[in-house]
Amino acid sequence: MFAQVEETVQSSVEWLRLMVETLGAIVIAVGVVVAVIGLLRQMRNAQSAGFGAVRLSFARYLTLALELQLAADILSTSVAPTWERIGKLAAIAIIRTALNYFLSKEMEQESKMTRPAEARPNIPP
Questions:
Q1: Arithmetic mean of pLDDT over the chain
Q2: What is the mean pLDDT of residues 93-118?
Q3: What contacts 68, CB < 8 A, 6 or more positions away?
Q4: C or N: which end of the chain has fewer Cβ atoms within 10 Å?
Q5: Cα–Cα distance between 7 and 91 in angstroms, integer?
Q6: Are residues 27 and 61 in contact, defined by beta-carbon separation less than 8 angstroms?
Q7: Cα 17 to Cα 73: distance, rounded to the nearest angstrom
Q8: What is the mean pLDDT of the segment spanning 25-52?
Q9: How many CB atoms lie within 10 A of CB 63?
Q10: Who contacts 100 (Cβ-Cβ below 8 Å, separation ≥6)?
């Protein structure tokens, strides 16, 4: 009886992991489509402001996708935690967390640069 319940839980978690991984891939695909459309609009309008807003938008999609992929990895390891899987999860978590951190920092800087001048506080020289 216990083995059957355990197998059902493992199967359910694997399906959930697959759905979360798929959602992460879909988020990346949507982000790419949104970024391409944004780039095409900027090129068509010949805006000289650069591609900061497009990069910022795409970075948001990537950040969400990284978090979803990390969640899928955690689900995968939670079902059958071997030392090998835990080690792989730790390495993946460190890499993805670092990527997410630096991506967030870049988004923060890009957000400051793309903000309109009137929204910035007036600081006398």
A1: 83
A2: 77
A3: 20, 21, 23, 24, 27
A4: C
A5: 27
A6: yes
A7: 8
A8: 86
A9: 18
A10: 63, 66, 67
Is the model's pLDDT at 34 over the cut of 90? Answer: yes
For 120, what's the count of Cα atoms within 13 Å in the CB-facing half-sphere? 10
Percent of the chain with pLDDT over 90: 24
Distance CA 23, CA 13 (A): 15
CA torsion, points 20, 30, 102, 75, in degrees to nearest 10? 0
Residue partners of 14: CB distance under 8 A and separation at least 6 = 76, 79
60 vs 35: CA distance, rounded Å: 11
